[in-house]
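As described in the Methods, two query proteins were run sequentially through the folding procedure within a single session, without resetting any intermediate state between them. The first query and its resulting structure tokens are shown here.
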Amino acid sequence: MWQVGRCSGPLRWLNLLRSSKRASKLRRFRLREPIRSIPLTASPTFSAWHHLVGRVRGRFDKVTGTITVSPDPAACSVDVTIDVSTISTQISKRDEDLRGDAYFDVKKFLTMTYQGRGIHRVSPDLWRMDGSLTMHGVTKVVPLTFKFNGTFSDTEPNEPARVAFHGTAGLKRAAFDMGARDNSSEVGDSTGPDVDIEIDVEADAASSTR
């Protein structure tokens, strides 16, 4: 079992990164059977275009989820739930606006979820999961690309080894029927993502029988 420490986000590395320059650090972590992480709270961050030239940055403070890790890339999975009422951009007036019916409409849609199964390599040190994001009552496939950052060197004796990942994703708010008033004034006619998401993951090795 792997316990996800601060931040949830999909993922898995063992047996999948042998060709990377960090592969030697992973040999003792090779998996022989599927294992499942313990759900913990996390805080992914986001940034969104603001009037075409600026960026609004924020986070969600209540996130729970479960990661399933397997030697078989097709069997790796993630199931994450985010309480959207916990959104924070450090400006209370803006946060209340984002919770309102022009954006997240938390009275109708209190949570959003990200669910995916299977990962594949997109470069020597990058992997991708094509998971489904359900937000504001709309479900779309939103690819999550992630990188293995390495192992922690200061693990105490008899403590589980810890590894870290960094994940990114992008989406358009209009695809989820959000921010209709932003279509021209905020994001223009761009066809690319207008919201970027970042997720940092730390995971501890533990017994798969726990």
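Immediately afterward, the second query was submitted; its sequence and tokens are:
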Amino acid sequence: MAHAAGQPARQPRVLRGEVGLPEDGSGPRLLFGWNPTKVEDRDDGEWQWGGCLTVHEILQRADGTLGVRPPRALLERFGEPEVGVAGLVLDAALDRRTTVLGRLPAAAVIEGEVTVASSTGSAGVLLDVDEDGHGGYFLRFDAELQLLQLGGYRSWYVDHFPELDRPLAIEPGRPIPFRIVLDGSAVVAYAGDVALSGRIYHRPRGWYGVFADGARAELHDVAVRPHVPSAPATA
């Protein structure tokens, strides 16, 4: 990837260790893609060719179609869960409600389970908000539109990044497990067996939480797993 004159090239992170597959071919099937950066490191910048590699593990659904989940090797790079809330109900059928749960490291996984009680409204996770739940970004489960959305302030008429929307079956009363992997500006979100990746650049606030808007929502086992740095390589 190109870098500015006079600046050192970015050093890639390397996974070290033995790699192998069972002889019967039963090992994981991996899907490799690219999470591009944006011009001038701005949320409203144009997408670039440069970025970082994103890897999903492929799984097969009961109907024969394919879904994805985070590879086990990725999750092993994060520590034990630091519980934000074991169970929480946000009754926001007539308004919007938010709850800030705790601090958010620069590199971490947020995991949990969300249930939207109705076929309208939305719920989700707040990312890098301030202590009062303002600013920052969100991962939204939109029950009316049946979409998974990554958002943040973009303009007075668009509150999310529409090019990143993913279709997602959101049934009233059905829990949806989620994991959100954050590392610097890169974000990869998994909801059930659907994935969404993107970039979020303005991250000075450092708190996370949950919200509901126009719906009653339940959040369970919401926790943060901080990144565990790799041990230095030995000669």
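The first strand starts at residue 29 and ends at 38. We note this only descriptively and draw no conclusion about the first query from it.
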